[in-house]
């Protein structure tokens, strides 16, 4: 597959700027959301968009564990 060969298979559209309070855990939140979305069958571009929105939400809180909703909340903003 393209993913196995390391090829670019998706690009995400820009998202609204976040009000950054802390970057702790943002990369972890992004990666986790991307993996979960792909495992749940989202197309790569949609999964990338979800991950971007989750990572963006993560920086708006002063803790590494912000109050995330289910992933569906972030899919609805695609």
Overview of the molecule:
This protein has 78 residues and is mainly α. The protein has a domain at 20-65. 49% of the residues lie in helices and 0% in strands. It has helices spanning 2-5, 26-39, 44-58, 71-75. The longest helix has 15 residues, at 44-58. The chain starts with a helix and ends with a helix. The relative contact order is 0.22. The mean pLDDT is 84.
**Counted beta strands:** 0
Describe the sheet with the most strands. Answer: none
Structural class: mainly alpha
Q: Can you tell me the residue ranges where pLDDT is under 50 for at least 5 consecutive residues?
A: none
Helix and strand sequence: HHHH
The 3D shape can be described as: elongated
Taking Cα atoms only, what radius of gyration do you get, to the nearest Å? 13 Å
Helix content: 40-55%
Q: Kindly, what is the distance between the CA atoms of the first and last residues, rounded to a whole number of angstroms?
A: 25 Å
Proportion in β-strands: under 5%
- Averaged pLDDT, please? 84
Q: What descriptors fit this protein?
A:
0% strand; PfkB_dom; 78 residues; kinase
Write the layout of secondary structure elements.
Blueprint: H1 2-5, H2 26-39, H3 44-58, H4 71-75
Helix pairs in contact: 2-3
Offer a quick outline of the entry:
The protein has helices spanning 2-5, 26-39, 44-58, 71-75. It is mainly α.
């Amino acid at each position: 597959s393209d993913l196995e060969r390391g090829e670019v298979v998706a690009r995400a559209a820009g998202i609204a700027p976040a009000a950054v309070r802390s970057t702790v855990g943002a990369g972890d939140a992004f990666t986790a959301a991307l993996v979960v979305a792909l495992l749940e069958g989202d197309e790569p571009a949609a999964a990338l968009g979800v991950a971007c929105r989750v990572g963006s939400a993560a920086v708006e809180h002063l803790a590494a564990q912000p109050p995330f909703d289910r992933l569906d909340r972030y899919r609805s903003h695609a």
